[in-house]
Amino acid sequence: MSEAEIKNLEVQFDAKIARDEKIEPKDWMPEKYRKTHIRQISQHAHSEIVGMLPEGNWITRAPSLRRKVALLAKVQDEAGHGLYLYSACETLGITREQLYEDLHSGKAKYSSIFNYPTMTWADMGAIGWLVDGAAIINQVPLCSTSFGPYARAMVRVCKEESFHQRQGYEIMLSLCNGSEEQKEMAQDALNRWWWPSLMMLGPTDAASTHTEQSMKWKLKRKTNDELRQQFIDQTVPQAELLGLTIPDPDLKWNDEKGSYDFGEIDWDEFWQVVKGHGPMNKKRLDDRRNAWNNGAWVREAATAYAAKQKLKKEETAQAV
Amino acid sequence: MKPIKELNPQFLESTENKKHLIDYLLGVADNYLILGQRLGELCGHGPNLEPDIALTNISLDMLGQVRSFYQYIAQLRGDKSTEDDIAFLRKEREYKNVLLVEQPNTDFGYVIVRQFFFDVYNRMFLGALQQSADETLRALAFKGIKEASYHERFSGDWLKRLGDGTEESKTRVQQAVNDLWIYTDELFHTTNADDAMIAAGVAPDMLQLKEYYYEKVGELLSTATLEIPEVEYFQKGGKEGLHSEHMGYILTEMQYMQRAYPDSKW
C-alpha cells in the first residue's frame, strides 16, 4: 500500500471514530491503534485475574456462609471478566498464551492496587467499596469506547462491578454497625486502601504519557485528575455515612470549586509499586506463574485428548 | 416424585427421632461444606480460566446446598442456632463428613478424582432422596439434582481427558485414583442415625446402590483407560467424627473469624 493510500485509510478511520461508529476486529486499523488496544485490554484482563488473588486469600476464612458464597461468586466474576477481556484482546491477533507469557515475564502490567496485602476481613469490604469504586469510574467511559469488542465487554463488566461495589460497601456497613473492634478493623482497612485507591486513577495529567492519543480513540473521556476528583467527591460522603475518617488531614470541602481539596499523593510509593517493588508484587506474579506452570500437564492432556478424539471420529467416518 | 413411605405426623415429636434426623442431616451436609471449602482454596489458582470458573461453580453449589441443609437443621433444633453456628462453631469430632472430601488438593488430578468419586455418589443419592418421606428433603433433592448431574459430567469428562491424555497425565491421575480409592467405601457406611432414618423412609438405603456405584465408576475409569485399584482395606471414620489429620487445619482456617470474634455479626 502506498503512503497516500494509508493516509487515506487513516483519515477514514479517524472520521469513523469521530462519528461514534465502532471499530470491529476485521476493519482496517492503524498499527498503533492495534498495539495500544492490545496493551490496554490485556492490562485490564491481567488486572482481573491477578485481582482474584488478594480477595481469594479470604475465601477459606470468610466469617459466615453468606459472605463466603458472595466472595466466591465475586472472585469468580473477576475470572469471567478476565475471560471476556482476553477474548476481546485475541480478536486483535494475539493469543491468550502470548498474553500470559507477557504477564509472567513482567513485560505486561496489571493494576498496582493488587500488590497490597489483604490483612483482615475488612479488606474485603474496602476493596469492594474503594477499589471497585475507582475501577468503575475508570471503566464506565469505556462502555462507549471505539473498539467494539472492548466496549461490549465493558458493558457487562461495569454492571457486575457496580454490584461488587455495593457488596463491599455493605460489608463495611456491617462492620461499622458492629462492635468497637469491628469498627476499628474497618477504619484500619480504609487507612490502608485509601491512598492506593487514589493512585489507581493513574499518574497526574502532567506525568501521564498516554492521555492525548487515548482521548482521540475514546479509550479515555476524562483525564486522570478529573477522574480522581470525581472519585473523591463521590466517596467522602460515603465514608461519612459509615462514620469513618478519611486518612487525609488536608481533605476539606472547597465551596468555590464545588469539590474537595485533598493532600499530596505519595507518588514515590506509586512508582515503587508500579516498577515491581510493592509489598506483594513478587507473590502475586509467583502465584500466577505457579498456577500456569502447575497446570501445564493438565492443558497438555486436554489438547492430546481432543486430538485423539478427533482422530477417532475421522476414522469412524472413513469406515462408514 | 412420590415418597416411598408417608412420614408419621408424630415422627418428629420423639426427641430421639429428631436427634437421629439432625445427625443424619449433618452426615449429608458436612460433606458439602468440607468439599466446598476445599474447592474454595483453588479459586484463582486453576490450570486455566475455564476449569477455574467451573470448580468455583461447584464450590458455590456445594455451599448453596449446605446452607439449605443447615437452615433445616437450625429449624429442627428450634433454638436460636443459625446456619453459621452449625458451620463454624462445632469441634472437630462433631463434623460428620466422609474422609474423602477432606483430602487435600494435591494436584488437579486429585481434585478431579475426589470430585468424581463424590459426584457419582451424590447424584445417585439425590436421585434417591427425591423419594424421601420428609418433604423438605424431597425439595432439597429436587433442587440439587440438576447441578449434581452437571458436576458428575464435568469431573467425568476431565477424568477421561486426564486418563486418556498424555503419559504424564495418565500416571498422575492413576496415582490419584489409587490414593483416593480407599475412601470410596465409606460413602456407603451407615451410622445408627442413618439406619434409623432409612427405617423411617427419610433416608434412602444407599447400600442398595453400592454395586451400581462401583459399576458406574469402573465403567468411566475404563473409558478413561485407567486401572481399578485392587484394595484389600478401606478407610472409614469420618461419619463417626473420626477424621484425618487434615481436618483440624481445615477447621482452623474456616473457623478463624468466628473463633477470634465470637458473637459478631458480619
Automatic annotation (TrEMBL), chain A:
One GO term (biological process): phenylacetate catabolic process
CC per GO annotation: cytosol
Gene Ontology molecular function: phenylacetyl-CoA 1,2-epoxidase activity
Pfam families xrefs: PaaA_PaaC
InterPro entries from the UniProt entry: Aromatic_CoA_ox/epox, Ferritin-like, Ferritin-like_SF, PaaA, PaaA_PaaC
UniProt xrefs under PANTHER family: 1,2-PHENYLACETYL-COA EPOXIDASE, SUBUNIT A, PHENYLACETIC ACID DEGRADATION PROTEIN PAA
Designated name of the protein: Ring-1,2-phenylacetyl-CoA epoxidase subunit PaaA
From TrEMBL, chain B:
Classification via InterPro entries: Aromatic_CoA_ox/epox, Ferritin-like, Ferritin-like_SF, PaaA_PaaC, PaaC
Membrane spanning stretches: none
Cellular-component GO terms for this entry: cytosol
Superkingdom as given in the UniProt entry: Bacteria
SUPFAM superfamilies: Ferritin-like (SSF47240)
BP term (GO), one: phenylacetate catabolic process
PANTHER family: 1,2-PHENYLACETYL-COA EPOXIDASE, SUBUNIT C, PHENYLACETIC ACID DEGRADATION PROTEIN PAA
NCBIfam families cross-referenced by the UniProt entry: PA_CoA_Oxy3
Name of the protein: Ring-1,2-phenylacetyl-CoA epoxidase subunit PaaC
Organism: Nonlabens xylanidelens
